[in-house]
Amino acid sequence: MKKTFDINRFWQVMKWTVLTERKSIITAFIAFVCGFLAIQLFSCFTIFDLTHGLGFAATMAGMQTCSMFIGFLWLYYASGVLGNVRTGQQRITALMLPASNVEKFFARLIFCCILMPLVVYLAILAATGLRMFFELIAGHEGIVWGLSYVFGFDANITGLEFSTFFSIASSCWSISLFVLGGVFFRQRPFIWTAVTIFAASLLLSTLVFYIGTMIGEDNIKHFLMSFRNMSFETFDLIVSLLLTAFTVFNVWLSYRLYCRLKVVQHKWFNL
SS3 string of the chain? Predict the structure, then answer.
């Protein structure tokens, strides 16, 4: 049964996952509502001007701050795929669960990468509604909804407008890196994954710099000229497909590491 997948059994595992985490879900929702509300009220300072508030610009600044926290929380929860098997007893329970590894892994993946971010988004909606209600009571004029920064998918790099497909693919790739780190690292997976990604990025940029120096500027220009006829839309599609392929590989590798889960794990790594 280790490699089989049954949709009915999967839904049972999914329901079991949600029920066992219901207290943390409720606690997280209340905490996020309070946190996002505090950011909007005190970062925007709208509640202190009891006549007019600070209007569009201040509200958008607060919503953008909330959006940054949402991105951070999404990656944080993605690294918590093994958050339910931290102790030996939890690992025994997970291993004895009458379901295949595929079902257990994807149940946790959906919980951490979809359900918990959904809780965060519902919290920002509730907090924004409460903020607008308080502003209405205070008699502010021109109350701003301000969720365009939170739910937007625009990607603008160096003035180039990338497609929604690229934005989604790059976001999924980033999330998959933290899923992989969450399965690999046993202690503080989010921190160690972030440190590893930073170190790898620094090492890769240094390596690319030295390789470029060895090849020479003229040879690099000649190589890049071979792509001069490629349209930006084609480039966008190719990069998006590559990011999608890397995402699938990261998820597959995460699953393979998940299958190595044992009662007694390494002190630092889930191997």
Answer: CCCCCCHHHHHHHHHHHHHHCHHHHHHHHHHHHHHHHHHHHHHHCCCCCCCCCCHHHHHHHHHHHHHHHHHHHHHHHHCCCCCCCCCHHHHHHHHHCCCCHHHHHHHHHHHHHHHHHHHHHHHHHHHHHHHHHHHHHHCCCCCCCCCHHHHCCCEEECCEEECHHHHHHHHHHHHHHHHHHHHHECCCHHHHHHHHHHHHHHHHHHHHHHHHHHHCHHHHHHHHHCCCCCCHHHHHHHHHHHHHHHHHHHHHHHHHHHCCCCCCCCCCECC
| The overall pTM is greater than 0.70 | yes
Instruction: Tell me the C-alpha distance between 145 and 128, whole Å.
Output: 7
Q: In this structure, are residues 259 and 94 in contact, taking their beta carbons and an 8 Å threshold?
A: no
The first and second tokens of residue 35, run together, are 């946190």
Helix axes 55-78 and 22-38, enclosed angle (nearest 10): 150
Q: What is the mean pLDDT of each run of 10 residues along the chain (271 residues)?
A: 79 93 95 93 61 65 87 94 84 86 94 96 94 81 78 53 85 96 92 95 89 72 67 86 96 93 74 62
Q: For residues 138 and 257, give the distance between their C-alpha atoms in angstroms, rounded to a whole number.
A: 54
46 is written with which tokens? 């709208």
Burial of 26 (0-12, 13-18, 19+ CB in 10 A): exposed
Q: How far apart are CA 252 and CA 180, in angstroms?
A: 9
- List phi, psi (to 5°) of 136: -65, -40
